[in-house]
Amino acid sequence: MLQPKLIRTSTVAMSLDFLLKGQLAFLSGHFEVVAVSGDDEHLKRLAEREQVRTVPLQMQRNISPLKDLLSLWKLYLLFKKEKPQIVHSITPKAGLLSMIAGKMAGVPVRIHTFTGLIFPSKTGLLQKILILMDKVLCCCATHIYPEGHGVKNDLIQYKITSKPLKVIANGNVNGIDTAYFSKEKVSVQEQQALKKELCIGENDFVFIFVGRLVGDKGINELVNAFKHLVVSSSAVENQSVVENESIVVNNRQITTDNSQPTAHCHPEPVEGSNLKLLLVGPLETELDPLQTETLKEIENNPNIISVGFQKDVRSYFSISDCLVFPSYREGFPNVVLQAGAMGLPAIVTDINGSNEIIVDGDNGIIISVKNSNSLLEAMNKIMKDSQFYSQLQMNARPMIVSRYEQKVVWEGILNEYKKLEKSV
């Protein structure tokens, strides 16, 4: 008996490759799965790892009317040829084009998952255009799944659709493989080697950010806060500077004087270098580039280490002490789940997804968006209050395992597919 056909689409293949890792292979036991996205190394890796058929089809992330029409036509032809029972899209542009093309082609079940909304952070004409695009998307879809309750509330608040909205399991598009994201998977030898490579001392306190280095992720505020953190160990609310103050965090002595910054490795901790900011992710220069001042600080500050995109981030989490994720908007950020599973507390902004994963004061700190002072205060507290830090660290992994284990999400998605397939 032939399996029903499922087509999963995203604007760029990186989204399918990383956001849905393992899920397509799981679903292929029940459906003939076809992955459609831009043609690059991520699509090729996806095909090999998940053992599913892939179809390269370019879609533009930004608004590009002529190219968008061409992509829409190609999707329509593909859907007419493949005749899938279900088309399921993620990411904004793939969602809009796939839902329109799916409706035109007569695909019976057309699902879109909102992993994050762009328009709440925009204003004016651009916001109106983005809202209209999402309304058209929802009009053409048969079913809408917000990734988290925050996204669901925004869709309702902005009256994007009157269709029922359902969050699968506890949220997130893929859950997390907590066996894979475990500090036990990284040996002490690997940690020591990576620290040596990155010039990170045994007594260093390391804040880590993982994601695209763009303004929308709060990198300008993060770099600014970290710059001031290094030169001041005082509580932010007192606005005072304490020089040469040593404190003990996580059984290590941390010095926060910045009188002798250095970009070189030293066998012994050097004043001013005991705090590190580790940036893991690609620097994007086209969409939402960083401020010039931020770029210069990243390049010239010896305490900021930027390693670019990394296929496996576990070793970087393993040598870090706290995730800092000051993004302006998210759907349900995998990075916060991954860091928590690796035992790291997190400082996050009060945005969709992040404020569902992190419970303020239990496994991290929630701060206001676009606020360097709040970020500085939170980083300062995490670094200086060892008892508070230890409590957050102790809760970090258990709070992820209990709510976001991967197989729970996969089974939830599969059950939805089967239910919808039977209903048509």
From TrEMBL:
Q: Which domain of life is it from?
A: Bacteria
Which terms does the record give in the GO molecular function aspect? glycosyltransferase activity
Q: State the InterPro entries in the record.
A: Glyco_trans_1, Glyco_trans_4-like_N
Write one Pfam family the protein is assigned to: Glyco_transf_4
Q: Which UniProt keywords apply?
A: Transferase
Q: Which residues cross the membrane?
A: none
Q: Where is the Glycosyltransferase subfamily 4-like N-terminal domain?
A: 32-171
Q: Which Gene3D superfamilies match?
A: Glycogen Phosphorylase B (3.40.50.2000)
Where does the Glycosyl transferase family domain start and stop, copy by copy? 272-397
Transferase: present as a keyword of the record?
yes
**Protein name per its UniProtKB record:** Glycosyl transferase family 1
Tell me what organism the protein belongs to.
Flavobacterium glycines
